[in-house]
Amino acid sequence: MSTAKKAVKAASVIMIITLLSKVSGFLREITFAAKFGTSVSMDAYNIATVIPMTLFVAVTAAIATTVVPIFTEYFQKEGKQKAFDFINNLLGVVLVATVILTFLGFTFAPYLVKFVAPAFTGEKFELTVKITTILLPTMVLIAASNIFTGALQAMEHFTVPAMIGIPYNIIVITVAILYGGKFGITAVAYSTIIATFIQTLVHLPVLYKLGYRFKLRVNFKDEGVKRVILLAMPVLVGTGVQTINVYVDRVIASFLPDGSIAALSYANRLKTFALGVFSTSIATAIYPVLSQHSVADDKEGFLKSLNFVVSGILYVLIPVSVGAMVLRVPIIKVLFERGAFDEKSTYLTSIALFYYAIGMTAYGLRDVLSRSFYSMKDTKTPMINGAIAVLLNIALNLILVRYLKLGGLALSTSIAAIFATFLLFTSLKRKLGKIGGKYMFMSFIRAMFASVVMGVVVHFVYNNMIIKMPSDKRIYEVIVLFMTILIGTIIYSAIVLITDKSALSYFKRGIRFVNSKLVRN
């Protein structure tokens, strides 16, 4: 079996499991919406998660990304035991660092909250500080979880890393339902620690089956650890653009009316659903394929794989983006509008979702393009482009928030992502010469044309169907939304298959890959 086929099959399995994980994540957000809506307590929780779970997750994700090539090198050249020794030492060093950061966080929590949300005062500020101190220990657990994830992916075991969100969400949902009414948002904060701990432990059975044994090692001078840190620094900036953008958005949103931060968070969850299922799954599986082409100096194979992936993302995410913009209100109503999440909450969230959706395709392309540079051992280019995009996002935030308020923050994030993707394409062409730009551009045109037609039809279909349905029961809204999406999918697929004959062969290959049982688990 070719390496490319194995990667696409792996991506298919990752997509299926990730879909289940994302669905459980949506159920968590639906529960939050029903229990807390866009309230002050939800704003406090979302800001409190920025410090340990949003800012730090970018660091540990960058470490996990660089673990893969280094672990693989140890594994192939010096054996499994040396590779596991490297993991134990990296884990020990990172755990020491995160424990120190946790204790510092306890001491400076009020200042951290003031930095992240400078407009918070009074009870809102105090609640945010309290939740922040509760969540700080998750930094240690997130670090361990990401290192374990990198090791498993390096050994081509993708299932467990893709499904760890499921037990996490089940625990948080259960606590929110049973204790959210009595103990408020603090119950959710405590459940987050428990859920993150379980999320970390889920990796160990598979790792132990593969021969891993935990042994605490702390050697800051270890060559492997030094290489991880050196590689992780540019990766952090290159891949952490979205995380930094979220942070900037929330700081500025703290000056907007209550509920703005929560609305941004709900809209961001909707946006990342599609990204997590499709682009992240594809990027995870294609990374080793591109690396192998790079090592073998197989430029033709590298570009062929890259073109296939980029076209696939365009054909999937462009219609999803258009659909999200057209059906943003009914989608949010069906998913979230119940309990404390009222019509005002739907309105605020729909504004953010509309502008986030503009950059959705760019987010997916950026992830794949960044990894194409990493596979060529070039972490500097994504870092520079990412830094430029962050600066652009901050500048646009300050300008657009004055005119579009909440929508301006989401729009500036999308524009920055589009600009970063354009820079990555330009840099890749400069590095490789011809990259098949005409083929990718034609895929973009076909996908955009089909999506616009689909969007117009979907708009009229939904509006005509919903007025004929009784307005007293939510089930009718669900039925109309489902039927509208189904009709839109059929129309879009038909246009794409007519305008691009190769799309049918890709679809058939995708079905075979999904049904295949040849992926290692």
TrEMBL record:
Bilayer-spanning residue ranges: 49-74, 86-109, 129-148, 160-181, 187-208, 273-290, 302-327, 347-365, 386-404, 410-428, 440-462, 474-499
Biological pathway: Cell wall biogenesis; peptidoglycan biosynthesis
Signal peptide span: none
Role of this protein: Involved in peptidoglycan biosynthesis. Transports lipid-linked peptidoglycan precursors from the inner to the outer leaflet of the cytoplasmic membrane.
Keywords recorded for this protein, A-Z: Cell membrane, Cell shape, Cell wall biogenesis/degradation, Membrane, Peptidoglycan synthesis, Transmembrane, Transmembrane helix, Transport
Protein name as it appears in the record: Probable lipid II flippase MurJ
Keyword Iron: no
Compartments it resides in: Cell membrane
InterPro entries: Lipid_II_flippase_MurJ/MviN, MurJ
Membrane topology qualifier: Multi-pass membrane protein
Record's GO cellular component terms: plasma membrane
Family designation: Belongs to the MurJ/MviN family.
An individual GO BP term: cell wall organization
NCBIfam families, per the entry: murJ_mviN (TIGR01695)
Gene Ontology MF annotations: lipid-linked peptidoglycan transporter activity
Pfam families: MurJ
